[in-house]
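Q: Can someone sanity-check these two? First one:
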Amino acid sequence: MVGGYAAGMIFTLLTIGVVTAVGLVALAGWLHLLPRLGPPGRAVSGWCQRAPGLDGVITVFTVLPGIVGACLAGWWGLGAAIVGQVLAMQGWVFLHEWTHPDARRGPRIVKVLNRVIGRTRNHAALWVMTPAVPVFWLIRVAQWTIYPALVALAKLPPYRQGDFVNLSRQKFDGLVGHDLIWCLYCDWMTGLWSLGSEMLRNIESLWCPIRFHSDKKCENCRHDFPDLDHGWVDADAGMTDVAALLEAKYADRDGPNAWFGHPTRLTVEGEPPQSS
């Protein structure tokens, strides 16, 4: 009886791994094929490269296999799905580089960094980054679910999220295989992070426009939160100053409650300020 259970579990895990690997490679092939299917295919391809369509594609490639695997076979199923994902990625890298021999043999990011950092350390560092994927995915879920509620409740400015969360580095000439997959990861990650920073600028300036007591923290944060140097009250000021600032920046305002340097705000001269 125990042997039958073990055999059944092994079969389930193998099925999860194989279906994950084959399915993801097939999906990648379909995405490569889409632009060659005429205007309808190019339209679908464009939708897949930009939020919200991109969010679905990212979910299928990153977290969905693990969720399904865990539901089917617990932690072992999660592990089998991850193995399938790794095999799918490595298989796609091999096929993509094999079909682009000139680019594979030419100058490449991976070749330079293998020499500068060391091949083992370079590849190990890249794999160390991969557990961050579900973290970024959860941030993306928050951007879709929590921030819109703040737009409705606190009148924060809405954003066309696809202007931040999109992919385009696949259009860069010479990026193939290993280089391309990691550049696409960074393409997605940096847009997502930039959108989150923009959302947090509005939140901080509305609810907590007070400089930090730590000069070092102020120095470190001023790039992501420009209002820190251009509007937030000093750390040794009083609540009267904070209340006055909020009155000046938000009371009787027709537009959205954006951070002080947001393009929707006008300067005294009537010109929109430069947002960072």
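And here is the second, same format, sequence then tokens:
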Amino acid sequence: MQAKIIKLRSGNSGRLRPGHPWVHGRQILAVDESARPGDIVTVVTSEFKPVGRGYYNPRSDIAVRLLAFGDETIDESFIRDRIARAVKKREALLSKTNAYRAVYSEADGLPGLIADVYGDTVVFQVLTLGMERFKEAAVAGLRDAVSPVYIYERSESAFRKVEGLKDEARWWGGKGKGEVEIFEGKARFLVDIEKGHKTGFYLDQRRSRTALEGIAKGKKVLDLFCYTGGFSAHAALSGATAVTGVDIKQEWLDLARKNAALNGLAARAGFVKADVFDFLRNSYNSGERFDIIVVDPPSFAKAKGQIAGATKGYKELNYVAMKSLNDGGTLCTFSCSHHVPNELFSDVIKRAARDAKKEITVLKRCHQDIDHPIVRAIPETEYLKGYFLRVRSI
């Protein structure tokens, strides 16, 4: 199984980025005639020097995803060992939360596998054909490393269609609870395992949510794209006098209200169903102002061709948000669009401030938390960027 050879082109056309696990179809010169989609292959240079081993799928532009840069045998034991190693790296978080990303795909050397822990439940996603072949080994590895009571699969993604896979969602073993309670610092949340977005909760924003604790006391807070109220709950728990969360989906807001009640915050945290752009414009035009505004939208650019539209959306949001702040207020603004790098996002923020006639001071740079590790050789692992900004009139 390990001997099927894929040979790269010579020169720059076949050169891989050092330490990066992706081999694109255009970089390949020859494929072993016995190699089938999903098979483990050995990648070699045009001079037959070994590059590494991974799984092959010609349906995808990323034809090979490397799991090892040496001659390791890729089998069930390899997958289980990698999972154990990934989970061990997260031990430092266990004093702060019982919800964390246990496996983060390429960043943990397991491309195509994502696994999140929510209390006694693991929710995992398999996104590629090669990892689909190892799914049972992945489940066994998660059982060994995490010892969950329940395991739920949420393999639902456009990536699976590209890979030639159908979406799949099911419990492995006994059926768990639809909603699981977790804690994050002093906040508690209910996570909808079966119906929530992606795996249920935006774990990558943990660090930024808890950072509100130092600035929210006595403030009026607006939480845009609030989802199930993560930022809202932390702001209210930290002494905000009033918090308004806004999002477009009723089921998310219903859970946000449950989360507010769970933390004893129902009197200070309210939620509004609305298009965020419309709400923000109407709020500004009515003269309402806030001390802190959180702008945490979903990805505006899921492909390179959407970058122009994404930057326009980010600029409009941040422009109106800055004008909706009381003088000296704080804007907490984020982008999770990988195709919008920090340099571009920062430039958009600067242009929004210029047009709004505001002076901005960076109080804090924001990144995904440590259970979403950033591997410098794999820039795609760094997708979340953000700022806490002091906003003053010029």
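A (reply): Looked at the second one. The longest helix spans residues 307-323. The radius of gyration is 23 Å.
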